[in-house]
Each structure stands twice: as structure tokens, then as C-alpha cells.
Amino acid sequence: xNKIILMGRLVRDPEVRYTQTGKVVCxxxxxxxxxxxxxxxxxxxxFIPIIVWxxxxxxxxxxxxxxxxxxxxxxxxxxSYDAKxxxxxxxxxxxxxxxxxxxxxxxxxxxxxxxxxxxxxxxESGFGSPVPFDEEIPF
Length: 139
Hints:
By secondary structure, this protein is mainly beta. It has one helix spanning 55-63; strands at residues 4-10, 15-18, 24-37, 43-53, 69-82, 88-101. Strands 1-3-4-6-5 form a five-stranded mixed β-barrel. Mean pLDDT is 81; it is low at 110-129.
């Protein structure tokens, strides 16, 4: 089984393009925090390239922006190609099957309300309050 689930922040705005056959593809990179600190006590992150195809690619291109948190589910792909200088290069990337907005477009700059805090949710009706993902839940 080849399944990967990642949550991270976009390093830059997504790039949307169309293949020669007319298929839409979106590429972006997310920074995923490591669950431990290095020897200097600083947190490190892995920068993971994500590829999204089809209608979801259009949605990513229109909805995601640099710094926004996103949850991605997909498969890990490792491929190789021959570079112009004749050397063999290897690429590791995640081919996304689905993704979820963890924050709405304007939320990640200030508030930490989840993206599903839409119409009729507990957040807008006054019940409960959003819990930042960086804090531990006490149960």
C-alpha cells in the first residue's frame, strides 16, 4: 500500500499549467514540521513537492496561497529522468488524491479557525472556540 497524509504550509503560491493534451496540473510545495528539535533546539521542516491533477488542480490554483495550511492525502512517487548534461536525476513527490483546506484564505494571517468553520458550524453559532493546531488538546 502506498498512502501518505501530510499537513503543512505552502511555501509559495501554487503553479497551475496545462499539459499538451489539455490536462490541468497544479504544483506546490508544503513545509511539514518535524516532530522534534535539532541539537540547537530549533524545529526543522521538510519541504515536500505536491502534484494535483484535474478539477482539484484548478481548485488548488484558485484557492490556495503562500503560507496557507493544507492537508494532503495521496501517494508517494519516485521517478527518474536524464538531465541535459546526461546525468540521471531522481525526483520524489506526492501525487495528491485529495486535499482539505485547514484554514480559509484570510484566516492563516491572524485567526486559526479551521476551513470547515463555515455556515452553520459551531464556530459561527457561538459554541466552542477554535483550538490552534500547535497546542495540545487536554484529553
